[in-house]
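re: ur msg from earlier - yeah i can do the beta-D-fucopyranose complex, just paste it... oh wait u already did. ok heres what im feeding in:
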Amino acid sequence: MDKKTKKELKFPEGFLWGAATSAHQVEGNNHNDWSEWERVNAERLAKEAGSKWEKWQQDKFSEMFNSENYISGRACDHYNRYEEDFDIAKELGHNAHRFSIEWSRIEPEEGKFDEKKIEHYRKILQALRERGMEPFVTLWHWTNPIWLSKMGGPENKKFAFYFSRYARFVVEQLSGLVDFWITLNEPTSVIANSYMSGVWLPQKKNLLSMLRVYKNLARAHNYAYGEIHKISPKAKVGFANILAFYEPYNKNSALDKIAVKIAKYFGNEKFLNLTKGKHDFLTVQYYFHNKLKFLGRIKNENKTVSDLGWEIYPEGIYHIIKGLRKYNLPIYITENGLADADDSRRAKFIKDHLGWIYRAIQEGADVRGYFYWSLLDNFEWDKGFWPRFGLVEIDYETMERKIRKSAWEYAKICRRNEINFIN
Ligand code: FCB
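and the outut:
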């Protein structure tokens, strides 16, 4: 007899299944600090592509040499097509959806809030509710209104004041339709990419700026946490945290272990500490497994990688979830995904990550939801449109949506609330 048996692995009842997007990456026609930066930097980014990416990537994605690739422009036109997109998500069995509100639309001028734009997001929320999808609403997914960026964006001492004032306005208007608020998306990604390596706007490499932004963003979360709870005491509030799984390159090297400690502290823990007591749930956004060498480069095995060359390492998500146990809070996986234009790795990627999440749940972790990044192909920041993260493919010429095969595989999981694999 075939020894292999199919085992059904059920997720906890009420588990949330969905996908995530962010305003600037999908809506189209945003005018904010990122859109301005794109205009100025598109040509440079196209020129640099030849030295930044490997030959196989350059051959496969020649769009990277075109400056248009780096302009978000009309993106996926999701601002107008959200109903069509939510119909697809519903058809795919999703019972939850994460998206973000674009600050520059709501407060285009300092202190002047646009009620019409709020109306748009109210319609979005109603559209999700009508389709039986629980909304997770992010208030800041990296983009700033122009007036604020002119004042230094998150480097400005008053950032927390401005952010919490905007948060208060939004929550007052929409609280009846939202139970889960995410204040900030991945503060440490901005700290690292904008103020440490200096590749994103405002392209600063400055330790003092970095520390200042750390402090201001933590304060922004803390203030907003208080404001949201004043308006909506029952709301659940958290921030979206990117968590990498760090390991020493050489397990016996004390120095490599120190490198891991430092990276873990600044990357995964410091922001949680600065916002202690101000989370109703924790989040995991998992993309990276980093084997660290002291004062050296990251060296991963990279047996399988995504189109971006990011290592696929599902086991890492298990270790990260286990590491959060000490906080004793519910956990939502608010992003996990890969760029995979030919859709050859996505279904396995999702299943494998879910397998490890399942294991963590079996061992007591309180994981309550999973949001694949992303529902749609979209504008991947300084890399532009060529990385294809979507469950749904976008034809950027016609705006046609095409559901990828892997999306149907994920749909089976969402509908049955279980994964099954051969063991
Ligand atoms: C995350 C971001 C998200 C997207 C994915 C690929 O760090 O939150 O906007 O760019 O990476």
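cool cool. The CA atoms of residues 331 and 367 lie 5 Å apart. ping me if u need the other ligands too
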